[in-house]
Amino acid sequence: MGESELRVPLLAANWKMNKTVGETVSFVGAFIPEVRSLLDSTRDPWPEVLICPPFTSLPALSSLLASYPVRIGAQNVYWQAKGAFTGEISPLMLKDLGCRYVIVGHSERRHIMGETGEMVARKVRAALDEGLKPVLCVGETLAEREKGEALKVNSEMTAGGLSEVKKEEVSQVVIAYEPVWAIGTGKEARPDDAAQVIGRIRETVDSLFGKGVSEDVRVLYGGSVKSTNIRSFMMCEEIDGALVGGASLDPVEFARLVFEVLRARPDRRTG
Ligand code: PEP
Questions:
Q1: How far is the CA of 182 from the centre of ligand 1 (A)?
Q2: Which of 6, 170, 230, 249 is deepest in the core (most CB within 10 A)?
Q3: Of 14-28, 37-51, 156-170, 197-211, which range is least confident?
Q4: Mutation test residue for ligand 1: of 10, 76, 111, 178, the one with most atoms within 8 Å of CB
Q5: CB burial class (10 A; 0-12, 13-18, 19+) of residue 21?
Q6: Any idea which fold 8-264 has?
Q7: Cβ atoms within 10 Å of 242's Cβ, excluding its own
């Protein structure tokens, strides 16, 4: 498939451990009218929008957004289908709740919960087996960037996360380049630096699966994205969208982000 069919820009929200069910309902009540007024729903289709709330808000979000082109996803998954794994959730259960995507290997899970590269690879595999699209997060720490290791680290994290993926499945994986030092800090990466790392991520995908394969893989940027800076990232041809934490919690701000993605890439949208 050609680039225009597969690399539809994706705006993904990671709510992290925020919002009760009641707060989720209020968010949707404010977000939908705001985004409709910005996009003028009679003429403009939406770009692909994804919201990943806490597990507890998935059922409410799924039913509230059923008639809108907004996908829902989870922030984590375990690799087994069922069984004695207290506190975990399976890909089958996420699918059952209407999830299309699942974030895997977010830096907070790697650094706070101690998730290893091997665990991340197993989660990517398990998501694909259930027909969920994994959003595989990679990104260097500040120390790694200062040592000049950003390209190497991101290449290795990409190869590790994709180690159990087959060539014909790789276009189902979304990769999110999220430098750890940019997450939640208000210090976003320079778009040309992000594009350079994303270029190396695509080279890694090509070296693993074959020349040109990466052209069908969406790679997002994440780290202190907001409505006032997303355009500079979307203007880079290499960057297919954004994974947004803090700014996605405010319904008006998130609606503006949807609008900015569409404005930056009016030619590629989902309808
Ligand atoms: C994230 O947590 O994935 C993220 C990018 O957070 P923020 O947008 O708040 O930096």
A1: 8
A2: 230
A3: 37-51
A4: 178
A5: middle
A6: TIM Barrel (3.20.20)
A7: 27
Ligand 1 atom with least separation from CA of 108: 2
CA of 122 to the centre of ligand 1 (A): 23
- Choose among 118, 236, 134: nearest CA to 175: 134
Say if CB 270 and CB 8 are below 8 A apart.
Answer: yes
Q: Does 135 contact ligand 1 (Cβ within 6 A)?
A: no
- Answer whether 262's CB lies under 8 Å from 31's CB: no
106 included as an active-site residue: yes
Atom of ligand 1 nearest to the CA of 186: 10
Q: At 4, is the pLDDT very low, low, confident or very high (cuts 50, 70, 90)?
A: very low
Q: How confident is the model at residue 44 (pLDDT cuts 50, 70, 90)?
A: low
Helix (H) or strand (E) holding 227: none
Note the pLDDT of residue 270. 59
Global confidence as pTM: 0.95
Q: Determine whether the shortest distance from the Cβ of 224 to ligand 1 is under 6 A.
A: yes
Residue 227 beta carbon below 6 angstroms from any ligand 1 atom: no
Residue 245 CB less than 6 A away from ligand 1: yes
pLDDT for position 46: 77
Q: Which residues pair with 244 in a beta bridge?
A: 13
Domain boundaries, the chain: 8-264
Exposed / middle / buried, residue 192 (Cβ in 10 Å: 0-12, 13-18, 19+): exposed
179 lines ligand 1 (CB under 6 A): no
What would the pLDDT profile of 11-30 be if each residue is shown by its tens digit? 999 999 999 999 999 999 99
